[in-house]
Amino acid sequence: MPPIDRRTLLRFAAAASGMIAVGGTMAACTSPAATLPGGVVHLDYWSWWGGFSNVVDIWNAHNPGVQVTATTIPGGTSGGYQKVFSALNAGAAPDLAQLENYQIPAFLIEDGLVDLSPHGGTAIVDKLVPWQADAVQFAGGIYGVPVDGGPLVSYYRRDRYEELGLTVPTTWAEYAETARAVRAADPKSYIEAFPLNDPEILLSLMSQAGGKWVSVEDDTWVVDIASEASTEVARFWGGLVGEGLLDTRRPPWATSWFSGLQDGTVLGWTAASWAGPIIQGNDPDKADAWAVAPMPQWPALNSASARTATQGGSSSVVLRGSQHPVESLAFATWLATDPEAIDAMTKFCGIGWSSAQGHYDTQLTERSAYFSNEHVVAEYAASSALVPNDWTWWPTVLTSRNHFADTLAAAPKTGDGFVAALREVQLRTVADLRNKGLNVRSAT
To answer: Domain spans of the chain?
Structure first.
């Protein structure tokens, strides 16, 4: 993600009318230092990771002087973010919280995050995968420690591909032809399902194609949602839906979709590294039925080099008002980079791909007994290496995603219909940013 300059961040604060005050007013509402008897520092970490307390127990056993309490909150968009915002406004926020990376700008415009740079945060950057480290850096500051991400790959039913005489597509054009071949060979089956009510995967696919929904020039947010690359992706997927080549009746996460993965009528899933355990857990007896391949490419849009994308990813952030930013950073660094912590986060919390640089190097030659004896970790690592760093999150991401879901639901299920929906999101996002008092212009 290109750096956002300090003037833009100052406009964040200036635009935050009715939100948390900055400067001296903020100091008046900070929580008192939480120190236990005997000088032990107490930190509170709010997250929705299941099993997170098991990971915290490991830290606490090794660090008697800094004790962490794991507090479970609802998932971010299910009430968790609102709970954190409310705590910030009340001056009762915890020291640390889990934030999805796309939500960091929304907290920045509320002046809700601590810049970790003065507290030793710059030392963490070189320990992290570059595209993950980049996601938390703004205006020369570091506003979180990435925990995980989700490089995209293609999961597919190897047995069904062989049965139908199909070849794994390497380009999206080949993917479309394969989708047609699946429907022709078995009208009950689809190459994969498509979620009309959740456009998150489309944002990732547009990023892979070179789309940049929002960027920053000086102190201005530049909205380019309907760019050539994003428009091409919208037209492509809308066209597949319009042809009836994707299963829209059984969208991902529906019970019927899980059944489709099991019985092979849904032949694949373009998804992140965290999806592998979900597939295996859904159908543990299908060893050798599934395989993993690189996601298809857009040679016409990215002729110079291959690109992938990421879906998902969370960071530990230190919230404004914490009296222990140094200790909070120490815990966040341990959580993201210590091998014991990463293994525990994988085991208990199901993180998809650690942000720690080189963590998986010793696993690249390992084969997966479930995924057709393939080098699955190596596939994830290859995808991670191709994730670009030219995508910028903006303060109204959630609203833009909601706009996209609404416009897709109302649009004709055709390529042109999806493009029209994209252009409407462009207009609405410009208006949303302008309503926050930010400098904004439309690139298209």
So the answer is: 6-148+312-372, 150-308+391-442
DSSP 269: E
d(CA 232, CA 301): 9
CATH number for 6-148+312-372: choose from 3.20.20.450, 3.90.79.10, 3.40.190.10, 3.40.50.150. 3.40.190.10
Choose among 10, 79, 67: nearest CA to 37.
67
| Residue from 187, 164, 186, 167 nearest 177 by CA | 167
Share of the chain above pLDDT 90, in %: 85
Say if residues 443 and 223 touch (Cβ distance below 8 Å): yes
pLDDT at 8 over 70: no
Instruction: Give the global pTM.
Output: 0.89
pLDDT top residue among 5 and 44: 44
**Do the domains 150-308+391-442 and 6-148+312-372 match in fold?**
yes
Q: What integer is the mean pLDDT of 305-330? A: 96
Q: 150-308+391-442 belongs to which CATH class?
A: alpha beta
DSSP string, 376-413: HHHHHHHHHHT--S-----TTHHHHHHHHHHHHHHS-S
Q: Across residues 246-271, what is the average pLDDT?
A: 97
Interacting residues of 212 by C-beta distance below 8 A, sequence separation 6+: 224, 227, 390, 391, 392
Longest CA pairwise span in the chain (Å)? 72
